[in-house]
Amino acid sequence: MPDSETVALEIEDDVATITIDRPDALNSLNVATLEALDVAIDEAEAADARVLVLTGAGEDAFVAGADISYMKDLSTPEAQAYAELGHGVASKLETFPAPTIAAVNGYAFGGGCELAIACDLRVASERAVIGQTEIDLGIIPGWGGSQRLPRLVGDETARRLIFFGERVDATDAREYGLVGEVVAHDQLDERVADVAEDLAAKPKFALRAAKEAINAVHEEPQGAGLTYERRVWAGLFGTHDQREGMAAFVEKRDPEFE
Q1: Residue 103 burial (CB < 10 Å; 0-12/13-18/19+)?
Q2: pLDDT digits over 154-175, tens only?
Q3: Among residues 45, 78, 94, 134, which one is catalytic?
């Protein structure tokens, strides 16, 4: 793949591991990082990886979210383009022709949560904290969260997570069905490697067919919902609450919403 300072791709024994490598920014996703992630997924597919693992660098975060410093002054058309980019990456994870695993090693907020739930499986460190936190920025999930979360955890749980912007620890995330299993932090890499190894040994074409069949249950209604989400998300940019919510986040103060 092209050189990237913020995304690393390694392929070993048919397992592709993509690491978001911006630990100083809690692996938040700016445009360049999203574009590099998009390319890395394509490269993993071209390499015929039998499993794809997505994780974050450092000890603190999987992906702490989208880049709020970048987002805070976007116009609606610019926000629409950013949504399209994030949606494209999430959709590539969802439709990747092999199982995908999110190794959630820390904070997974906003767009980070959305990328995790676009994967087939989620293994979380006991230190993980997960949430769709966009509401306190004056916006809604914009990379598929409003559509994928309800089918994963159920309608009311999804509404509570999105309406309140709740951040849940690994234990509660497991109870909600947001992650499949929780392991000790120092065992996460080993456990994910074991899961990936087991999957890589399964019949390749049968696994791909199984994934496509499961995804097909949701494709039509979800496609319309994803289109609607992108439009509504972008339309919130330029409102007082969006500007105030993101400015307050960047300035480390409490927002004053209308």
Answers
A1: buried
A2: 999 999 999 999 999 999 999 9
A3: 134
Encoding tokens for residue 58?
A: 């450092």
Of the candidates 35, 94, 114, 229, the residue annotated as catalytic is: 114
166 is catalytic: no
pTM exceeding 0.70: yes
- 181 as an active site residue: the answer is no
**CB 75: neighbour CB atoms within 10 A?**
11
Q: Looking at residue 1, what is its pLDDT?
A: 46
What proportion of the chain, given as a percentage, has pLDDT over 90? 83
Q: Which residues contact 202 (CB under 8 A, 6 or more apart)?
A: none
Matching residue, tokens 């767009």? 111
pLDDT mean across residues, the chain: 93
Predicted pLDDT of residue 50: 97
